[in-house]
Specification:
By secondary structure, this protein is mainly α.
Length: 320
Amino acid sequence: MLSVWNWLLPEWAQPNHPLLQYELAQTRGKGGRIGLKLQLVLLSLLIGGSALLYAAATRNPQSAANLTGVFWRSVYYPALVLQVITLIMAFALGAAAVGGERSRKTWDHLRVTEFGAGVALRARWAGILYRLRAPILLILLIRLILVGGIVYDLTAFGGLYPAMLGAQATPPLPWRLDLLLIALAVLVNMLLPLAAIATVAALGILISVAVKERVYAAIIQILVVLAQLTASLAGALAIAQTIARDASGADDWSYALFFGYSAFGDLGLLLAQLGSLGEVWNRVPNGATIIVCLMVILVALGAAADGMMWLAGGLSESRG
């Protein structure tokens, strides 16, 4: 199985590639494994403790029977904070990708290897994701548990729960389309965080190559970080206020709000539980199509990340 996986990877992402080994030299070995375990334990304790505190502070006896809903509400904000921090770290590591090599006078040596600057940058890109493997694994674990909750909830009401959600959507969904959209929601919720983290890391690398002046690069980094914080925190506040209002109060902007926040704010976490998914379908006109739009965003993020890495490689070859 491992050989098949390695065969599917591009050359620069192969574990035995010299440039990738150079990137991962500091994270491998016994120390790297121990560090990964410590990070996972500490992050799990922080997320679990925050979730327990939030659940205790917002206890609602009427909703205690819905275990998947309780778990989703308890872990939502801790998971959101973890995602935002991981995105910022990925961007910061990408933005420092070339500057550190330039200051150590080693970047030109990497550029003139037989692999070229483009492959060197892509190996650094993969190295960033590897360094962030602990928070990424925890993000995926939380979402995998939520996927298990979705599978469990699908059996509710004799297996008629998806049909009930579809019937309450605005407008009501045709027969069996509800199950297809739920399956797409599961796929989006597992892949969208990975695509977003890879994209912001690629953006950071592009900035590190294109902007040599540290002052300008720092200003751009601050603006990008502020934009991500605004999209996540302000979006979460706007969503909470919208849900607190009567369902009939949804307006034409509600679709843009829920779609924009799901795409760039919480990365689909709002749609990772069937009760919340049904709430969006019911409140937002044509809200069920948000999942389809998120699939388009997912593909666009992958194309954008690859395009930025290609552009960064071209700029590095021509400008150094």
